[in-house]
Amino acid sequence: MRRLLIAAAAMVLLLSSCGTSARYGWERERNKIPAFADLVLCYGGGLVKEPRYWSEDRFSAQVSYTDEKGREHWLYDAFLFIDDHEGRTGKGLSLSPSPGQKNGNKLSWHEFIDYWLAPGGAIDALANCVEETASRIGAPARKRVIIMTMPDPVQFECFADKSSSTTYWGDGLDFSKSEDQVKAYKWFIDECRSRFALCKCKYLELGGFYVLSEDLVAKKDGLNYRYKRWDQILPEVSKYLHTMNCGLYWIPWNMAPGHDMTRTLGIDMAWMQPNAYWDEENAKPWDRTIEAIKKHDLSMEFEFEYSVCTAAMMQPGRKAPDAHWRMTKTLADVPGFKSRFREYMKQFKDAGLYGKKPIAVYAGTDTMYMLAKSREPDDVRLYHELCHYLLDSPLRADK
After folding, report:
1. Is residue 270 part of a domain?
2. What pLDDT, in 10s, does the model give residues 33-62?
3. What is the pTM of this model?
4. N or C: which terminus of the chain carries fewer CB neighbours within 10 A?
5. What angle, rounded to 10 degrees, do the helices at 334-350 and 377-391 form?
6. Residue 215 sits in a domain of what CATH number?
7. 374-392 pLDDT, tens digit each
Protein backbone atom coordinates (compact mmCIF):
# COMPACT_ATOMS: atom_id res chain seq x y z
CA MET A 1 0.00 0.00 0.00
CA ARG A 2 2.71 2.43 1.02
CA ARG A 3 4.64 2.20 -2.26
CA LEU A 4 1.47 2.84 -4.27
CA LEU A 5 0.79 5.97 -2.26
CA ILE A 6 4.29 7.24 -2.90
CA ALA A 7 3.90 6.61 -6.62
CA ALA A 8 0.62 8.49 -6.70
CA ALA A 9 2.14 11.45 -4.90
CA ALA A 10 5.11 11.48 -7.23
CA MET A 11 2.86 11.94 -10.21
CA VAL A 12 1.95 15.27 -8.76
CA LEU A 13 5.19 16.45 -7.82
CA LEU A 14 32.06 -5.72 5.60
CA LEU A 15 33.14 -7.89 6.60
CA SER A 16 33.18 -6.58 10.11
CA SER A 17 30.61 -3.92 9.57
CA CYS A 18 27.85 -5.61 11.58
CA GLY A 19 28.41 -5.53 15.30
CA THR A 20 26.83 -5.51 18.69
CA SER A 21 25.21 -2.55 20.35
CA ALA A 22 23.14 -1.63 23.39
CA ARG A 23 20.63 -4.37 24.15
CA TYR A 24 16.90 -3.84 24.57
CA GLY A 25 14.19 -6.12 25.84
CA TRP A 26 12.86 -6.91 22.35
CA GLU A 27 16.21 -8.27 21.15
CA ARG A 28 16.26 -12.05 20.97
CA GLU A 29 19.02 -13.44 23.18
CA ARG A 30 20.25 -15.90 20.59
CA ASN A 31 21.33 -13.05 18.31
CA LYS A 32 23.84 -10.35 19.09
CA ILE A 33 22.31 -8.03 16.53
CA PRO A 34 22.51 -4.24 16.95
CA ALA A 35 19.49 -2.91 18.82
CA PHE A 36 17.65 0.36 18.36
CA ALA A 37 14.65 2.23 19.73
CA ASP A 38 13.34 3.85 16.56
CA LEU A 39 13.74 3.32 12.84
CA VAL A 40 13.02 5.87 10.11
CA LEU A 41 12.35 4.82 6.52
CA CYS A 42 14.44 6.65 3.91
CA TYR A 43 13.04 6.25 0.40
CA GLY A 44 15.42 6.66 -2.50
CA GLY A 45 13.24 8.89 -4.64
CA GLY A 46 13.39 6.46 -7.54
CA LEU A 47 17.13 5.98 -7.02
CA VAL A 48 17.95 8.96 -9.24
CA LYS A 49 21.64 9.61 -8.66
CA GLU A 50 21.91 13.20 -9.78
CA PRO A 51 20.95 15.42 -8.13
CA ARG A 52 21.27 13.34 -5.00
CA TYR A 53 17.91 12.86 -3.31
CA TRP A 54 19.43 12.32 0.13
CA SER A 55 21.82 15.12 1.02
CA GLU A 56 23.37 16.00 4.37
CA ASP A 57 20.78 18.75 4.75
CA ARG A 58 17.82 16.41 4.20
CA PHE A 59 19.28 13.87 6.62
CA SER A 60 19.65 16.58 9.26
CA ALA A 61 15.95 16.40 10.17
CA GLN A 62 16.29 12.69 10.89
CA VAL A 63 19.64 12.78 12.67
CA SER A 64 18.97 15.41 15.32
CA TYR A 65 16.22 17.51 16.84
CA THR A 66 16.37 20.97 18.37
CA ASP A 67 13.79 21.38 21.12
CA GLU A 68 11.76 24.42 22.18
CA LYS A 69 14.61 25.68 24.36
CA GLY A 70 17.16 25.47 21.57
CA ARG A 71 18.84 22.28 22.84
CA GLU A 72 19.88 19.78 20.19
CA HIS A 73 19.36 16.04 20.70
CA TRP A 74 20.17 12.90 18.76
CA LEU A 75 16.99 11.72 17.05
CA TYR A 76 16.52 8.46 15.10
CA ASP A 77 19.01 5.77 15.99
CA ALA A 78 18.29 3.52 12.97
CA PHE A 79 17.81 4.21 9.26
CA LEU A 80 16.17 1.93 6.70
CA PHE A 81 17.28 2.56 3.11
CA ILE A 82 14.54 1.50 0.74
CA ASP A 83 13.07 1.78 -2.74
CA ASP A 84 11.12 -0.56 -4.97
CA HIS A 85 12.55 0.10 -8.43
CA GLU A 86 15.89 0.88 -10.00
CA GLY A 87 16.02 4.39 -11.43
CA ARG A 88 18.27 3.90 -14.45
CA THR A 89 16.14 1.28 -16.23
CA GLY A 90 12.91 1.46 -14.23
CA LYS A 91 13.04 -2.27 -13.48
CA GLY A 92 11.25 -3.44 -10.38
CA LEU A 93 13.00 -4.52 -7.21
CA SER A 94 9.85 -6.07 -5.75
CA LEU A 95 7.23 -8.38 -7.18
CA SER A 96 4.72 -6.54 -9.35
CA PRO A 97 1.68 -8.15 -11.01
CA SER A 98 1.56 -5.39 -13.63
CA PRO A 99 1.74 -6.66 -17.23
CA GLY A 100 5.05 -5.79 -18.87
CA GLN A 101 6.82 -4.83 -15.62
CA LYS A 102 10.26 -6.43 -15.66
CA ASN A 103 12.09 -7.35 -12.50
CA GLY A 104 15.61 -6.26 -11.78
CA ASN A 105 18.57 -8.48 -12.67
CA LYS A 106 21.97 -8.52 -11.00
CA LEU A 107 22.92 -5.23 -12.72
CA SER A 108 19.81 -3.60 -11.25
CA TRP A 109 20.73 -4.88 -7.80
CA HIS A 110 24.22 -3.42 -8.33
CA GLU A 111 22.64 -0.07 -9.19
CA PHE A 112 20.63 -0.20 -5.97
CA ILE A 113 23.77 -0.84 -3.93
CA ASP A 114 25.64 1.94 -5.74
CA TYR A 115 22.92 4.47 -4.97
CA TRP A 116 23.33 4.00 -1.25
CA LEU A 117 26.92 2.80 -0.84
CA ALA A 118 29.01 4.29 -3.63
CA PRO A 119 31.55 6.99 -2.60
CA GLY A 120 29.68 10.26 -2.29
CA GLY A 121 26.37 8.42 -2.06
CA ALA A 122 23.56 8.56 0.45
CA ILE A 123 25.30 6.70 3.26
CA ASP A 124 28.33 8.97 2.93
CA ALA A 125 25.94 11.93 3.25
CA LEU A 126 24.44 10.41 6.39
CA ALA A 127 27.87 9.67 7.84
CA ASN A 128 28.94 13.28 7.25
CA CYS A 129 25.74 14.60 8.81
CA VAL A 130 26.20 12.44 11.90
CA GLU A 131 29.85 13.49 12.28
CA GLU A 132 28.93 17.17 11.98
CA THR A 133 26.23 16.70 14.59
CA ALA A 134 28.70 14.94 16.91
CA SER A 135 31.06 17.88 16.59
CA ARG A 136 28.30 20.13 17.99
CA ILE A 137 26.66 17.97 20.68
CA GLY A 138 29.14 15.17 21.34
CA ALA A 139 29.29 11.61 20.11
CA PRO A 140 26.09 9.52 20.26
CA ALA A 141 25.83 6.95 23.05
CA ARG A 142 25.88 4.23 20.40
CA LYS A 143 26.35 4.00 16.66
CA ARG A 144 23.43 4.72 14.36
CA VAL A 145 22.18 1.45 12.83
CA ILE A 146 21.83 1.04 9.07
CA ILE A 147 19.28 -1.42 7.64
CA MET A 148 19.60 -2.22 3.93
CA THR A 149 16.60 -3.31 1.86
CA MET A 150 17.06 -6.52 -0.12
CA PRO A 151 15.46 -6.59 -3.60
CA ASP A 152 13.04 -9.47 -4.09
CA PRO A 153 14.44 -12.43 -6.08
CA VAL A 154 11.24 -12.68 -8.15
CA GLN A 155 10.84 -16.04 -9.83
CA PHE A 156 9.90 -14.67 -13.28
CA GLU A 157 11.42 -11.77 -15.20
CA CYS A 158 7.85 -10.55 -15.64
CA PHE A 159 5.74 -12.02 -12.86
CA ALA A 160 2.50 -11.46 -14.78
CA ASP A 161 3.87 -13.73 -17.52
CA LYS A 162 4.56 -17.16 -16.06
CA SER A 163 6.29 -18.17 -19.31
CA SER A 164 8.94 -15.44 -18.92
CA SER A 165 12.53 -16.25 -18.00
CA THR A 166 13.50 -17.60 -14.58
CA THR A 167 17.22 -17.21 -15.37
CA TYR A 168 17.09 -13.47 -16.13
CA TRP A 169 19.06 -12.44 -13.03
CA GLY A 170 22.40 -13.76 -14.24
CA ASP A 171 25.34 -15.74 -12.84
CA GLY A 172 23.68 -18.92 -14.02
CA LEU A 173 21.04 -18.73 -11.28
CA ASP A 174 17.56 -20.10 -11.91
CA PHE A 175 14.92 -18.43 -9.74
CA SER A 176 12.57 -21.36 -10.19
CA LYS A 177 14.83 -22.93 -7.54
CA SER A 178 14.57 -21.54 -4.03
CA GLU A 179 18.22 -22.37 -3.36
CA ASP A 180 19.24 -20.05 -6.20
CA GLN A 181 17.06 -17.27 -4.82
CA VAL A 182 18.89 -17.70 -1.51
CA LYS A 183 22.23 -17.50 -3.37
CA ALA A 184 21.20 -14.15 -4.88
CA TYR A 185 20.26 -12.85 -1.44
CA LYS A 186 23.61 -13.98 -0.03
CA TRP A 187 25.46 -12.25 -2.87
CA PHE A 188 23.59 -9.04 -2.10
CA ILE A 189 24.32 -9.28 1.63
CA ASP A 190 28.01 -9.96 1.06
CA GLU A 191 28.32 -7.13 -1.44
CA CYS A 192 26.63 -4.64 0.89
CA ARG A 193 28.82 -5.64 3.80
CA SER A 194 31.99 -5.41 1.73
CA ARG A 195 31.01 -2.01 0.37
CA PHE A 196 29.97 -0.73 3.78
CA ALA A 197 33.36 -1.76 5.19
CA LEU A 198 34.95 0.73 2.76
CA CYS A 199 32.80 3.65 3.91
CA LYS A 200 34.04 6.21 6.38
CA CYS A 201 31.34 5.55 8.93
CA LYS A 202 32.72 6.39 12.35
CA TYR A 203 29.29 6.51 13.96
CA LEU A 204 27.37 4.07 11.74
CA GLU A 205 27.07 0.28 11.73
CA LEU A 206 25.36 -2.05 9.29
CA GLY A 207 22.91 -3.84 11.53
CA GLY A 208 20.70 -5.88 9.24
CA PHE A 209 18.63 -6.35 6.12
CA TYR A 210 15.00 -5.75 5.25
CA VAL A 211 12.50 -7.84 3.29
CA LEU A 212 10.98 -5.58 0.65
CA SER A 213 7.70 -7.38 -0.08
CA GLU A 214 4.97 -6.05 2.21
CA ASP A 215 3.17 -9.39 2.16
CA LEU A 216 4.78 -12.80 2.48
CA VAL A 217 2.62 -15.62 1.21
CA ALA A 218 3.96 -18.35 3.42
CA LYS A 219 1.01 -20.71 3.84
CA LYS A 220 0.77 -23.55 1.38
CA ASP A 221 -2.86 -22.71 0.64
CA GLY A 222 -2.03 -19.05 0.02
CA LEU A 223 -2.12 -17.10 -3.23
CA ASN A 224 0.66 -18.13 -5.63
CA TYR A 225 2.50 -20.04 -2.91
CA ARG A 226 4.41 -22.16 -5.42
CA TYR A 227 5.80 -19.03 -7.06
CA LYS A 228 6.86 -17.25 -3.87
CA ARG A 229 7.98 -19.86 -1.31
CA TRP A 230 9.10 -17.35 1.30
CA ASP A 231 9.02 -20.05 3.96
CA GLN A 232 11.77 -21.88 2.07
CA ILE A 233 13.86 -18.78 1.37
CA LEU A 234 13.79 -16.45 4.37
CA PRO A 235 14.73 -18.90 7.15
CA GLU A 236 17.95 -19.68 5.24
CA VAL A 237 18.67 -15.98 4.78
CA SER A 238 17.99 -15.36 8.47
CA LYS A 239 20.43 -18.08 9.52
CA TYR A 240 23.07 -16.57 7.25
CA LEU A 241 22.56 -13.11 8.70
CA HIS A 242 22.73 -14.35 12.27
CA THR A 243 26.21 -15.75 11.66
CA MET A 244 27.23 -12.13 11.08
CA ASN A 245 25.29 -10.66 14.02
CA CYS A 246 22.86 -9.02 11.61
CA GLY A 247 19.07 -8.99 11.89
CA LEU A 248 16.25 -9.62 9.42
CA TYR A 249 13.40 -7.07 9.42
CA TRP A 250 9.99 -6.59 7.79
CA ILE A 251 7.05 -4.14 7.69
CA PRO A 252 3.82 -5.77 6.46
CA TRP A 253 0.70 -3.91 5.47
CA ASN A 254 -2.27 -4.28 7.77
CA MET A 255 -2.98 -8.00 8.28
CA ALA A 256 -0.76 -8.91 5.33
CA PRO A 257 -0.20 -12.62 4.64
CA GLY A 258 2.67 -13.82 6.79
CA HIS A 259 2.20 -11.31 9.63
CA ASP A 260 1.39 -14.24 11.90
CA MET A 261 4.46 -16.26 10.85
CA THR A 262 7.37 -13.89 11.40
CA ARG A 263 9.25 -16.13 13.83
CA THR A 264 8.75 -19.15 11.56
CA LEU A 265 10.17 -17.11 8.69
CA GLY A 266 13.24 -16.10 10.73
CA ILE A 267 12.30 -12.42 10.97
CA ASP A 268 13.76 -10.76 14.06
CA MET A 269 11.43 -7.78 14.21
CA ALA A 270 8.35 -6.77 12.21
CA TRP A 271 6.25 -3.62 12.45
CA MET A 272 2.59 -3.77 11.39
CA GLN A 273 1.29 -0.93 9.22
CA PRO A 274 -2.02 0.25 10.73
CA ASN A 275 -2.78 2.09 7.45
CA ALA A 276 -5.11 4.24 9.58
CA TYR A 277 -3.56 7.54 8.51
CA TRP A 278 -5.52 7.42 5.23
CA ASP A 279 -8.49 5.51 6.66
CA GLU A 280 -11.22 8.08 7.34
CA GLU A 281 -13.93 5.42 7.48
CA ASN A 282 -12.15 3.22 10.05
CA ALA A 283 -12.17 0.27 7.68
CA LYS A 284 -9.15 -1.06 9.57
CA PRO A 285 -10.21 -0.66 13.20
CA TRP A 286 -7.54 0.01 15.77
CA ASP A 287 -8.66 -2.72 18.16
CA ARG A 288 -8.11 -5.39 15.51
CA THR A 289 -4.69 -4.01 14.58
CA ILE A 290 -3.50 -3.79 18.19
CA GLU A 291 -4.80 -7.28 18.94
CA ALA A 292 -2.79 -8.73 16.03
CA ILE A 293 0.34 -6.80 17.00
CA LYS A 294 0.22 -8.16 20.54
CA LYS A 295 -0.78 -11.69 19.59
CA HIS A 296 2.07 -12.13 17.12
CA ASP A 297 4.78 -10.19 19.00
CA LEU A 298 5.02 -7.39 16.43
CA SER A 299 5.51 -3.67 16.82
CA MET A 300 3.88 -0.74 15.01
CA GLU A 301 4.86 1.47 12.12
CA PHE A 302 3.85 5.12 12.56
CA GLU A 303 2.62 6.53 9.24
CA PHE A 304 2.33 10.04 7.83
CA GLU A 305 3.33 11.94 4.72
CA TYR A 306 3.31 15.48 3.35
CA SER A 307 -0.49 15.71 3.74
CA VAL A 308 0.12 16.19 7.47
CA CYS A 309 2.19 19.32 6.82
CA THR A 310 0.29 22.60 6.51
CA ALA A 311 3.25 24.37 4.90
CA ALA A 312 3.48 21.74 2.17
CA MET A 313 -0.24 21.65 1.45
CA MET A 314 -0.42 25.45 1.23
CA GLN A 315 1.44 25.33 -2.08
CA PRO A 316 -0.85 26.29 -4.98
CA GLY A 317 -2.59 23.29 -6.52
CA ARG A 318 -1.05 20.83 -4.05
CA LYS A 319 -3.09 17.70 -3.47
CA ALA A 320 -2.42 14.45 -1.62
CA PRO A 321 -3.67 10.86 -1.88
CA ASP A 322 -6.62 9.35 -0.10
CA ALA A 323 -6.98 5.71 0.96
CA HIS A 324 -7.64 4.69 -2.65
CA TRP A 325 -4.56 6.52 -4.00
CA ARG A 326 -6.69 9.24 -5.62
CA MET A 327 -5.19 12.71 -5.46
CA THR A 328 -8.21 14.32 -3.77
CA LYS A 329 -6.92 15.70 -0.46
CA THR A 330 -6.32 19.42 -0.01
CA LEU A 331 -5.25 21.91 2.65
CA ALA A 332 -8.67 21.56 4.31
CA ASP A 333 -7.88 17.90 5.07
CA VAL A 334 -4.65 18.60 6.99
CA PRO A 335 -6.28 18.81 10.47
CA GLY A 336 -7.84 15.38 9.91
CA PHE A 337 -4.48 13.90 8.93
CA LYS A 338 -2.82 15.43 11.99
CA SER A 339 -5.54 14.01 14.22
CA ARG A 340 -5.24 10.53 12.75
CA PHE A 341 -1.46 10.58 13.13
CA ARG A 342 -1.74 11.62 16.78
CA GLU A 343 -3.96 8.58 17.24
CA TYR A 344 -0.96 6.38 16.42
CA MET A 345 0.94 7.78 19.38
CA LYS A 346 -2.07 7.37 21.66
CA GLN A 347 -2.88 3.81 20.55
CA PHE A 348 0.72 2.66 20.94
CA LYS A 349 0.81 3.97 24.51
CA ASP A 350 -2.65 2.73 25.44
CA ALA A 351 -1.68 -0.74 24.21
CA GLY A 352 1.26 -0.81 26.64
CA LEU A 353 3.76 -1.07 23.77
CA TYR A 354 5.49 2.27 24.30
CA GLY A 355 8.92 1.75 25.79
CA LYS A 356 8.74 -1.99 25.17
CA LYS A 357 8.88 -2.23 21.37
CA PRO A 358 10.96 -0.25 18.88
CA ILE A 359 9.03 2.17 16.66
CA ALA A 360 9.30 2.40 12.87
CA VAL A 361 8.36 5.69 11.23
CA TYR A 362 7.14 6.07 7.65
CA ALA A 363 7.21 9.78 6.81
CA GLY A 364 6.68 9.66 3.05
CA THR A 365 9.81 10.81 1.32
CA ASP A 366 10.81 13.95 3.22
CA THR A 367 8.00 15.01 5.56
CA MET A 368 10.30 15.04 8.61
CA TYR A 369 12.35 17.65 6.78
CA MET A 370 9.20 19.61 5.85
CA LEU A 371 7.98 19.67 9.44
CA ALA A 372 11.40 20.59 10.80
CA LYS A 373 11.66 23.57 8.44
CA SER A 374 8.03 24.70 8.66
CA ARG A 375 7.08 27.91 10.43
CA GLU A 376 3.38 27.08 10.58
CA PRO A 377 2.44 26.80 14.28
CA ASP A 378 0.45 23.57 13.91
CA ASP A 379 3.36 21.94 12.05
CA VAL A 380 5.81 23.07 14.71
CA ARG A 381 3.62 21.63 17.48
CA LEU A 382 3.31 18.27 15.77
CA TYR A 383 7.05 18.07 15.08
CA HIS A 384 7.86 18.72 18.74
CA GLU A 385 5.24 16.17 19.87
CA LEU A 386 6.68 13.43 17.70
CA CYS A 387 10.30 14.13 18.58
CA HIS A 388 9.59 14.22 22.31
CA TYR A 389 7.60 11.00 21.96
CA LEU A 390 10.62 9.30 20.41
CA LEU A 391 13.17 10.77 22.82
CA ASP A 392 11.15 10.08 25.96
CA SER A 393 10.81 6.36 25.25
CA PRO A 394 12.33 4.17 27.99
CA LEU A 395 14.08 2.29 25.19
CA ARG A 396 16.32 5.26 24.56
CA ALA A 397 19.68 4.67 26.19
CA ASP A 398 20.98 8.15 25.35
CA LYS A 399 18.19 10.44 26.57
Report:
1. yes
2. 888 999 999 988 655 555 567 889 999 999
3. 0.91
4. C
5. 20
6. 3.20.20
7. 999 999 999 999 999 999 9
Alpha-carbon distance of 58 to 64, in angstroms, equals: 11
Cα distances from 158 to residues 86, 101, 154, 290, in angstroms, run 15, 6, 8, 36
| Cα–Cα distance measured from residue 244 to residue 230, given in angstroms and rounded to the nearest whole number | 21
Does residue 35 form part of some domain? yes
Find out whether the peptide bond into 140 is cis, omega within 30 degrees of 0.
no
The Cα-based distances of 141 to 126, 138, 279, 318 in angstroms read: 17, 9, 38, 41
97 Cβ contact partners less than 8 Å away, ≥ 6 residues apart: 159, 160
Range of the domain at 262: 2-391
For residue 346, is it within any domain? Answer: yes
Contact 132, 126 (CB under 8 A): no
Query: Would 96 be classed as within a structural domain?
Result: yes
CA distances (Å), origin 25, targets 35, 36, 162: 9, 10, 44
Residues near 347 by beta carbon (within 8 Å), at least 6 away in sequence? 274, 286, 289, 290, 300
Strands (E), 68-183: 72-74, 78-82, 144-150
Distance of CA 5 to the CA centre of its chain: 14
Query: CA 83 to CA 320: how far, in whole Å?
Result: 20
Domain count of the chain? 1
